[in-house]
Amino acid sequence: MGNKSDRRSFLKTAGAVAGGAAAASLLGAGGAAAAKKRGVPSGPIKVAAISFLSGPAAGPFGIPGDNSYKMMADIYNKQGGILGRKIKLISLDEAGGAKGQVELARKLILEDKVDVILGYISSGDCKAVLPLSDELGGLMLAYDCGTHVLMEGKKSPYKTPKYELGFRTAAHLGQDNIALALAIKKYMPNVKKIAGINQDYAWGRDSWHIFELAIKKLIPGVEVVKTLWPKIFTTDFTAHVSALQGSGAQIIHSSLWGGDAVTFMKQAKAAGLFKQAKMALSRGEPYPQEVGAAFPEGQFVCCAGAHYFLYPAWDKWPLNKWFVAEYKKRYNKYPTYPSYHAFQAITAYKVAVEKAASLVGGWPTIDEIAKAMGNLGFETPSGYLTINKDHNAREDCLVGITKMTKDYPFPILDPDRLEVFPSFQVNAPAGMRTEDWIKSWK
Fold first, then answer.
1. What is the CATH superfamily name and number for domain 4-171+312-392?
2. Do 266 and 236 contact (CB within 8 A), yes or no?
3. Is residue 373 pLDDT above 70, yes or no?
């Protein structure tokens, strides 16, 4: 799939900035002309990459993300690193809970003096750690965690950014659940009864909350017949499946992830749940590949953005073709959305450093990098990514319906029923709570 011209094209586009803050904004009142020529440190750039490397979330999420970090660090280093400095990637395990991650972040910033932390899949970990960015003076890029409240205020309008040195380089769960609701409205506009099964903590509660708001706004009169809240890392969903079967739901929304999602889908299929209801999986893109041919057809799957190995189409977006081929060559699997999210995080850091350096005349400070990142745009394998003044990334969102074909050993998303919703349709404007934005729809 890959070739040298694709690779050269990628290397040009990966570092290209599509707009950004003016030099005067970055440098202060003196402007670019007042900047003194600076040197570039000779040592490597310490990049801490934190993902689940053990436990049930490692296989579908943490390891694909870490693989992508390693791949891109290797590629960037072969091209000279960032401003001539090589990337020293430090892969660390997210397992152990929020308290352990808080302690680790303190050590990484205060003792190990890392240049940046790229991390966190768990929304609970993000909520505990990201506030430390300003307190400790360390740059943090949340690469995958999805809770929308991480960067939002308690009422609209709210001050942006919430954290000066904290960013999220992938769009939050608002887009996942709004895009699902929009896809359901298109393909099942007459749905009457819906249910939800979501994990009983911030990620699950927030995901259902936004989906319920959106679907009720888009399809007035739809009835919620059952909401279930299994504990995270549940291994037996028998009772939950039975409750859903008895509910009469036509659509079952779920933000289950990791081993929970795989276990639930297998047990639900064995019990015959999918003969009477369709799943709407808010971040379901990894699971057809994880489960294989046993994954049921006809289910709504959201890709946590437009992150999919077959989209954007390779003939129209060579960067995705290159990324898929390079990842498959190294790891013998197709990249899933955590792999794309990791690409976005490490590339956002690289592009922001290069942008800031071009304005200050040498290696930028952490504050200068943060200012550059707060109004950033660049190309990714999934299309264009922007990071807004609220420090949240915004991107288009893809929803598909699973279909088995002869070309792959697992269901893909039906090419005739791919829905790509533009970022403005599924991401709230900066300074406005996602809930308030949905309620304002006409």
1. Response regulator (3.40.50.2300)
2. no
3. yes
Q: Do 4-171+312-392 and 174-303+397-426 have matching folds? A: yes
Please say if the pLDDT value at position 23 is more than 70: no
Query: Residue 361: helix, strand or coil by DSSP?
Result: coil
Taking all residues of the chain, what is their mean pLDDT, rounded to a whole number? Answer: 92
DSSP per-residue string spanning 253-301: EE---HHHHHHHHHHHHHTTGGGT-EEEETB-TTHHHHHGGGSPSS-EE
Residue 14: pLDDT over 50: no
CATH topology of domain 174-303+397-426: Rossmann fold (3.40.50)
Please state the domain extents for the chain: 4-171+312-392, 174-303+397-426
Pairing of strands 397-403, 412-413: antiparallel
Angstrom distance (rounded) from CA 147 to CA 250: 26
Position 38 scores a pLDDT of: 85
Average the pLDDT over 101-112 and give the result: 98
pTM of the model: 0.92
Structure tokens at 286: 């990894």
The alpha helices in 18-151, defined as continuous H runs, are 23-27, 63-78, 98-106, 123-129, 132-136
